[in-house]
C-alpha cells in the first residue's frame, strides 16, 4: 500500500486491495500445505469418516447389546456366544460427514486497531473451512454480532473454498457484541448438530459465557478461538482522556498514568484467564490466537491441540 | 525596590487583568481527549482508582494554575523594571561631550585623537557606578546626542562607536548649553568634555554661560601639534577672459619651527603647478596664481613637508574648489549688418548668437539678450534683456531727446559693471540723440548735452540704450567697444556675480538651486545622500566634510545638477597643539568623579530568564509525559 493511498478521499480501492490481499495466492498455497500437513499429522484417518455417536452400519466396533428378534444374524457376535453362551449383537459406530460451523464475530470491537483481529479471524476461519472442505465435511460459515448478520449456506468439497473466501470478504464488522442472543438464533437456525468454532475477542458486555453455554446446551461441540491483540492490553495513552466503548459508546473520564496502565494490563490478563478457566471447567477447547502470529502457525497449533480433527 | 518601568498602579492593573483571564481559563472545564477502546468494561477495574486520580488531577491542575500565575507575576514584575531604590536616588548624571572637530582627526596619537577619545569614554562608561547614567554627545558645529541618558552599557557602547570627527570646528558654547539643558533638574549633574582643547575662544564663553551646580571635568586627548594647513582657497574667472582664471590660497605653518613645504595645485585632477618654499614658524602666507590655465572644472591644492613626511592633521592639507560654471548666453541680434558688433560678439566663444533682419519674425526660443541695432522692433517675453544701439523714435523703452552732434562721454559711471575698465573720455561721436530717462532709469554715460547711455528696466526686463550709432564714432576702433558689448551681456546674464568657489565646513550653506523645488538631494564626498530643504531658491545644508559635493534638484526631465566644493578653511582648527587643562572663565575643569560601586545588573533580565527557564521545564515535563 502506497503512502498516497492513505490520503485518498475514497477509501474503497484501498479496502478492496486489502480484502484481495486477505486471501491471495500465497494464502491459498498455505492452505494447501495445511491440508497436506493435516493428513500427515492425522494419518490413518479416512476422509468423511468421522465417527458419530450414533450406532449404525459402520465398520468400527462400538458396543454389544442383547439380541432381539428381528436382528440381523450377521451382527451376532458368535465368539461371545461361544465363550459366555449369551447372544449379543455387535454394534458398529455409524459413519457420517460432520457439520462444522464456523462462527465469526463481526462486532465493532473486532475491527478495533486496524481490523487486525477481524482479519486474523477470517484467515483462521478460511483455513479451517478449507481443511474441513478437503475432508468432505459439511462446512457452514456464519457472521454474528448481537444476532446472525450473515450466513453462508452449508457446503462441502474443496472446490467450494472460493465461495468461503467470497463470503468472508463480504463480512463487515459493526454493531454490538451479544453472543448469547446471536448464538441462540444460530442454534435455532441449525438443527443439525456439529462442531461450532467461535472466532471472537469475547468482548461481550453481557458476558462471554452466555454464548458458549448456548452452544453447549444445544448439543453443539463448541470450540473457542479467542482473538487477542496485545496492543489492547497496554494502549499508548497518557493524561486526561475520555475513553468510550467502540461498540456501546459507554464513556469513562480518566487521568491515565503508568500505574493505571499496569492495572489495565492486569485487568486484561484477568479477563483472559477467566475465559480460559471457564472453557477448562466446561471442557470447551479454547485456543488464544494472537493477531501478530502468522495464521498458518496458529492453524497448526489448533491441529496439534486436537479437537478439531479426529 | 522601585519600579523604573511602568508605574506600580499600571502594573497592578495589568497583573489583575491577566490573572483574571488566567483563572477564568482554568475554571473552564477541561475538554478531554476522546479515545475509543475496544471494551470499556475492562477499564472498570482501573476505574476504581478514579477518586484518587481525580484528586491528583485536580491537584495537578491547581499546581498548573499556580505555575501560570507565578509566570505571570514574574513577567509583570519584569515589565516594571525593578531596581534597587538606592540605584535611582544616588546615581550621577553625566553628559559626556566628545569633541568631534577637525583637530580630532589628528594622528599624533594612534590611530587618531577621536579613537583615543572613544577609548577614554569607554573606560569612563565602564567605570560608571551602578546608579550612574550617562549621555553621549558629539560636539561639532552643533551638539548631536548619540544616546539617551542611560546606564546601559549596551546602549552607550554603540553610541561611542558612532563618534566621528568632521571637518568643522567644535562649538563648545553650544555643547555646554545643551549639556546644561539636559541636566536641568537632575541630581549629581556632571559635564565631561573629552577634547584636545582646540576649542576656539573658550574664555569668551564664560561671559554668557553659567554652568550652575553641575560639575565640570575635562579629559584631554592628544600629545603634539605639528601641522601645515591650507587655510584659504578660492578661484575666479577673469571677467574679460573667462577661459582663464586666478587662484588665491593661503597656507599656514602652525609649528614653532620653520619648515620647507611643497604646494601642489591640481586642475581637473592633473597637476598644474608644484612649488616649494619656506614657511616660517607660525607663518601664514597668501599665494596667488594669476592667469591660470589648464583647469576647466575642479581645482585642488595639497600641501606637505618638502621632505615628504606627513603632518599630524592631514585633514587640512587638502583644499578643494570648483571653477565658476560657464553657460552659453543666447544673444539675438536684430541688425541690417554691423561688422563692429559682429566682431565684438565673436570674441566670446560662449556666446550663442542668432542674427535676424529687422522686420523679420523673431524666433520663439528663449534669449538672454537681444541687441537691436538701429531698430526698435517689439520683443517677445522670451527675450530677457535688450541692448538698444541708436534706437529710432518710438517703440523704445524711453524717449529720444534733442539731436546731438560732435559730442562724447563727458561723464560715465566707472563703478558700473558695464563700464568698468573702460576709458571713454576721448571717444568722439559725430551725431546722435540725447535720451530721456524715466523714474528708476540710471544714466551710465552722458555728454554735457544730455544722457547718451541709459540703463533701466521695463516690465521686469532690463535694458541698456545707447543714443548714437557706434559706427558714427571712433569707439568701434577702440578696445573699449567689444568690452562694452561683452560687459553688457555679462551684466544681463548675471554671470559670476554671486559665485562661491568653495563653502566653509561647519556653516549653514545656502546653495543656489531652482526656486521651483522644495527639496534637493546633496551627495557628500563619501557618497552619502542627504535630502535638504530649498528655501527661496537656495538649498540649506549644514556641511561638515571637506571635498566636492553634488546636488540634484527637481525630477524627471527637469532635474538640475550642480556641484560645489567645501573646505575646512579654519586656521584655529589647524592649530592642533593639545591643551591639558580647560577653564571656562574662572571655572577650571577638574577630574571625572568616581561613581558609587555596585552591581549594574538589570533585574528584569533575570526575571525573564527565570520565566524562560520555568517554561522550558514545563515544556519538558509535558512533552516527556512526566506531568501528564
Estimated helix fraction of chain B: 10-25%
* Order of neighbouring strands in the sheet with most strands of chain A: 5-4-3-6-7-10
Number of helices of chain B: 11
The geometry of chain B reads as elongated
CATH class of the largest domain in chain B: Alpha Beta
Broad CATH class of the domain at 25-44 and 97-228 and 285-305 in chain A: Alpha Beta
Count of strand segments of chain A: 10
Task: Give the arrangement of secondary structure elements.
The complex is a heterodimer of chains A (about 300) and B (about 625).
Chain A: H1 12-22, H2 25-41, E1 51-66, H3 78-84, E2 88-95, E3 99-105, H4 116-134, E4 138-144, E5 148-155, H5 161-170, H6 179-189, E6 195-200, H7 208-217, E7 221-228, H8 230-233, E8 239-245, E9 251-256, H9 258-281, E10 286-290, H10 295-305
Parallel strand pairs in A: 3-4, 3-6, 6-7, 7-10
Antiparallel strand pairs in A: 1-2, 4-5, 8-9
Helix pairs in contact in A: 2-4, 2-10, 4-5, 4-10, 6-7
Chain B: E1 2-3, H1 8-27, E2 33-37, H2 43-47, H3 50-79, E3 82-83, H4 85-89, E4 93-99, H5 113-126, E5 133-139, E6 143-145, H6 153-161, H7 172-183, E7 189-195, E8 215-220, E9 228-237, E10 245-253, E11 259-267, E12 270-279, E13 284-292, E14 298-305, E15 318-322, E16 329-334, H8 339-346, E17 351-356, E18 369-373, E19 386-389, E20 400-407, E21 411-412, E22 429-435, E23 442-447, E24 450-458, E25 461-466, H9 480-493, E26 503-504, E27 508-512, E28 519-523, E29 529-535, E30 538-542, E31 547-553, E32 560-567, H10 571-574, E33 583-584, E34 587-588, H11 603-623
Parallel strand pairs in B: 4-5, 4-7, 7-8, 16-17, 16-18, 18-19, 19-25, 26-32
Antiparallel strand pairs in B: 1-3, 5-6, 9-10, 10-13, 11-12, 11-14, 14-15, 20-22, 21-23, 23-24, 24-25, 27-30, 28-29, 28-31, 29-30, 31-32, 33-34
Helix pairs in contact in B: 1-3, 3-11, 5-6, 8-9
Amino acid at each position: 500500500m502506497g503512502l498516497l493511498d492513505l490520503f485518498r478521499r475514497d477509501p474503497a480501492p484501498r479496502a478492496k486491495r486489502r480484502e484481495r490481499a486477505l486471501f491471495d495466492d500465497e494464502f491459498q498455497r498455505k492452505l494447501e500445505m495445511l491440508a497436506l500437513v493435516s493428513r500427515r499429522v492425522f494419518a490413518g484417518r479416512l476422509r468423511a469418516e468421522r465417527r458419530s455417536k450414533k450406532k449404525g452400519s459402520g465398520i468400527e466396533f462400538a458396543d454389544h447389546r442383547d439380541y432381539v428378534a428381528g436382528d440381523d444374524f450377521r451382527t451376532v457376535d458368535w465368539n461371545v456366544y461361544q465363550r459366555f453362551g449369551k447372544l449379543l449383537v455387535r454394534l458398529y459406530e455409524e459413519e457420517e460427514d460432520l457439520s462444522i460451523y464456523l462462527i465469526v464475530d463481526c462486532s465493532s470491537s473486532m475491527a478495533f486497531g486496524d481490523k487486525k483481529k477481524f482479519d486474523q479471524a477470517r484467515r483462521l476461519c478460511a483455513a479451517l473451512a478449507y481443511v474441513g472442505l478437503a475432508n468432505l465435511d459439511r462446512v457452514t460459515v456464519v457472521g454474528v454480532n448481537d444476532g446472525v448478520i450473515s450466513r453462508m449456506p452449508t457446503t462441502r468439497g474443496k472446490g467450494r473454498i472460493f465461495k468461503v473466501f467470497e463470503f468472508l470478504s463480504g463480512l463487515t464488522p459493526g454493531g454490538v457484541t451479544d453472543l448469547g442472543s446471536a448464538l441462540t438464533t444460530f442454534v435455532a437456525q441449525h438443527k443439525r448438530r456439529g462442531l461450532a468454532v467461535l472466532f471472537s475477542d469475547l468482548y461481550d458486555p453481557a458476558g462471554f459465557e452466555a454464548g458458549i453455554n448456548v452452544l453447549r446446551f444445544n448439543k453443539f461441540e463448541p470450540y473457542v478461538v479467542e482473538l487477542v491483540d496485545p496492543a489492547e492490553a497496554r494502549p499508548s495513552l497518557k493524561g486526561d482522556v475520555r475513553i468510550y466503548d467502540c461498540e456501546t459508546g459507554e464513556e469513562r473520564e480518566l487521568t491515565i498514568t503508568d500505574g493505571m496502565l499496569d492495572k489495565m494490563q492486569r485487568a486484561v490478563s484477568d479477563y483472559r484467564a477467566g475465559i480460559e478457566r471457564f472453557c477448562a471447567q466446561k471442557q470447551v477447547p479454547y485456543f488464544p490466537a494472537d493477531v501478530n502470529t502468522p495464521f498458518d502457525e496458529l492453524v497448526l497449533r489448533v491441529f496439534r491441540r486436537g479437537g478439531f480433527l479426529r | 525596590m522601585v519600579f523604573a518601568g511602568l508605574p506600580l498602579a499600571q502594573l497592578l492593573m495589568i497583573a489583575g487583568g491577566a490573572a483574571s483571564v488566567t483563572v477564568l481559563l482554568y475554571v473552564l472545564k477541561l475538554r478531554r481527549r476522546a479515545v475509543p477502546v475496544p471494551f470499556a468494561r475492562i477499564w472498570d477495574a482501573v476505574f476504581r482508582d478514579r477518586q484518587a486520580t481525580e484528586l491528583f488531577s485536580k491537584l495537578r491542575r491547581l499546581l498548573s494554575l499556580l505555575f501560570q500565575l507565578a509566570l505571570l507575576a514574574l513577567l509583570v514584575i519584569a515589565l516594571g523594571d525593578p531596581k534597587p531604590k538606592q540605584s535611582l536616588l544616588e546615581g550621577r548624571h553625566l553628559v559626556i561631550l566628545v569633541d568631534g572637530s577637525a583637530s580630532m582627526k589628528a594622528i599624533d596619537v594612534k590611530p587618531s585623537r577621536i579613537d583615543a577619545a572613544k577609548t577614554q569614554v569607554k573606560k569612563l562608561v565602564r567605570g560608571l557606578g551602578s546608579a550612574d547614567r550617562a549621555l553621549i554627545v558629539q560636539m561639532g558645529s552643533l551638539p548631536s546626542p548619540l544616546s539617551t541618558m542611560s546606564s546601559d552599557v549596551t546602549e552607550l557602547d554603540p553610541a561611542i562607536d558612532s563618534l566621528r570627527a568632521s571637518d568643522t570646528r567644535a562649538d563648545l558654547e553650544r555643547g555646554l548649553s545643551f549639556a546644561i539643558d539636559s541636566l536641568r533638574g537632575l541630581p549629581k549633574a556632571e559635564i565631561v568634555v573629552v577634547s584636545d582643547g582646540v576649542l576656539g575662544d573658550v574664555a569668551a564663553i564664560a561671559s554668557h554661560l553659567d554652568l550652575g551646580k553641575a560639575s565640570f571635568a575635562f579629559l584631554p586627548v592628544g600629545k603634539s601639534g605639528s601641522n601645515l594647513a591650507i587655510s584659504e582657497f578660492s578661484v575666479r574667472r577673469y571677467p574679460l577672459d573667462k577661459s582663464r582664471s586666478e587662484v588665491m590660497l593661503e597656507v599656514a605653518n602652525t609649528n614653532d619651527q620653520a619648515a620647507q613645504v611643497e604646494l601642489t595645485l591640481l586642475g581637473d585632477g592633473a597637476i598644474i603647478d608644484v612649488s616649494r618654499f619656506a614657511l616660517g614658524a607660525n607663518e601664514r602666507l597668501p599665494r596667488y596664481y594669476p592667469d591660470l590655465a589648464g583647469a576647466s572644472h575642479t581645482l585642488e591644492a595639497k600641501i606637505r613637508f618638502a621632505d615628504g613626511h606627513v603632518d599630524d592633521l592631514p585633514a587640512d592639507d587638502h583644499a578643494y574648489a570648483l571653477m565658476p560654471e560657464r553657460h552659453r548666453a543666447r544673444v539675438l541680434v536684430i541688425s541690417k549688418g554691423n561688422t563692429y558688433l559682429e566682431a565684438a560678439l565673436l570674441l566670446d566663444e560662449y556666446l550663442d548668437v542668432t542674427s535676424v533682419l529687422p522686420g523679420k519674425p523673431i524666433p520663439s526660443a528663449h534669449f538672454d539678450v537681444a541687441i537691436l541695432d538701429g531698430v526698435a522692433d517689439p520683443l517677445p517675453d522670451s527675450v530677457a534683456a535688450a541692448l538698444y544701439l541708436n534706437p529710432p523714435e518710438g517703440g523704445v523703452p524711453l524717449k529720444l531727446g534733442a539731436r546731438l552732434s560732435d559730442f562724447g562721454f563727458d561723464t560715465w559711471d566707472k563703478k558700473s559693471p558695464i563700464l568698468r575698465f573702460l576709458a571713454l573720455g576721448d571717444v568722439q561721436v559725430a551725431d546722435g540723440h540725447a535720451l530721456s530717462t524715466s523714474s528708476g532709469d540710471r544714466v551710465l554715460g552722458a555728454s554735457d548735452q544730455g544722457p547718451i547711455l541709459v540703463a533701466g528696466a521695463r516690465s521686469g526686463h532690463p535694458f541698456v540704450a545707447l543714443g548714437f550709432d557706434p559706427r558714427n564714432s571712433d569707439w568701434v576702433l577702440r578696445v573699449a567697444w567689444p568690452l562694452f558689448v561683452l560687459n553688457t551681456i555679462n551684466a544681463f546674464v548675471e554671470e559670476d556675480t554671486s559665485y562661491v568657489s568653495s563653502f566653509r565646513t561647519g556653516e549653514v550653506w545656502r546653495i543656489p538651486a531652482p526656486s521651483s523645488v522644495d527639496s534637493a538631494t546633496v551627495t557628500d564626498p563619501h557618497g552619502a545622500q542627504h535630502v535638504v530643504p530649498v528655501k527661496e531658491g537656495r538649498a540649506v545644508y549644514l556641511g561638515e566634510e571637506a571635498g566636492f559635493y553634488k546636488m540634484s534638484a527637481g525630477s524627471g526631465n527637469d532635474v538640475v545638477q550642480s556641484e560645489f566644493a567645501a573646505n575646512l578653511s579654519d586656521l584655529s582648527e589647524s592649530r592642533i597643539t593639545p591643551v591639558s587643562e580647560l577653564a571656562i572663565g574662572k571655572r577650571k575643569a577638574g577630574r571625572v568623579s568616581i561613581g558609587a560601586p555596585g552591581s549594574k545588573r538589570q533585574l528584569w533580565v533575570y526575571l525573564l530568564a527565570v520565566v524562560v527557564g520555568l517554561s522550558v521545564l514545563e515544556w519538558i515535563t509535558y512533552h516527556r509525559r512526566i506531568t501528564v
